[in-house]
Amino acid sequence: xxxxxxxxxxxxxxxxxxxxxxxxxxxxxxxxxxxxxxxxxxxxxxxxxxxxxxxxxxxxxxxxxxxxxxxxxxxxxxxxxxxxxxxxxxxxxxxxxxxxxxxxxxxxxxxxxxxxxxxxxxxxxxxxxxxxxxxxxxxxxxxxxxxxxxxxxxxxxxxxxxxxxxxxxxxxxxxxxxxxxxxxxxxxxxxxxxxxxxxxxxxxxxxxxxxxxxxxxxxxxxxxxxxxxxxxxxxxxxxxxxxxxxxxxxxxxxxxxxxxxxxxxxxxxxxxxxxxxxxxxxxxxxxxxxxxxxxxxxxxxxxxxxxxxxxxxxxxxxxxxxxxxxxxxxxxxxxxxxxxxxxxxxxxxxxxxxxxxxxxxxxxxxxxxxxxxxxxxxxxxxxxxxxxxxxxx
Length: 393
Ligand SMILES: C[S@@+](CC[C@H](N)C(=O)[O-])C[C@H]1O[C@@H](n2cnc3c(N)ncnc32)[C@H](O)[C@@H]1O
Prior knowledge:
The chain is an alpha/beta fold and 393 residues long.
């Protein structure tokens, strides 16, 4: 999560601010962690609209862009963090952790009738203590807004930071000799302290102008956009669906799944969102359709994409070639680090990150010169070709 957050303090942030200067609104069509939307909402006077297929992503964006005041020292959030749960106070685990203890926690967690975090993920992604704390915090989420959204976003960030899993939540670490130390490390993180740190960070951040975070599909949002919109697109580059890697966070965002199963404790495939941008056979057409739609709406656009061939069959150069006919294309290149989402990693179980060049592609609608025959009713002989500039292409 948040692959763009580190780049925002460098060239990516500068380019974004420069390009936003003449816009009326900033739109992020693939918002993910909301890092880019948060950056723009706090540093400009533009309303920000975010879209993502996943509910957890909506919550992460909304926690900042839908709020225009600080929540530092807010008593509702303070009370929430103090939610009492006797069993949740203990953050230390039996040491050393063994496979027998992990399996016993799994068995115990699955017999709990209350609390979906414990039932779904206890003993797998989280120790029993962590899972029960996450459940207690979920059960006591504030009723009022904007505190509820901020608290839920903090819970999602906390669940991500404490998971005994390799940087995403497709599958938890299994209690093998090699991986037990990593489970122990993750299980020793305090849910309560992590949640407090996240709340402090989120509470201090807010938008200059109130924005809106939506769950939705990028393509079907395009017809609602217009000329004043500066549209940021950081689409998937992997041929594996994001919903497979972040199902635990989505589970927390939506209050649990009907059922989870398998080593990954994942919901049924049918209940996970799918994106054409993560299907090798469909991603090029999906990108082309997106570009055609955005061009019709007259938006200015910025796309970030790995410069090398990505596993969904696209590359930054492919996108530049697709856009060149209808747009003035201005590419920049920045150094980036991407999650391999389960692919080859850097030697640590928690990691799977790869350095690469990222293309930052700026597209401005080009006024194309076309010959349009102007018909005069009833006088076909008077049809005269006239040269006009068209913005819609
Ligand atoms: C590369 S990530 C974006 C990362 C984001 N810029 C950040 O810094 O966290 C791509 C995101 O697009 C979302 N997504 C995939 N297909 C989509 C679609 N058709 N419409 C909207 N969102 C989509 C995924 O759920 C994922 O969160």
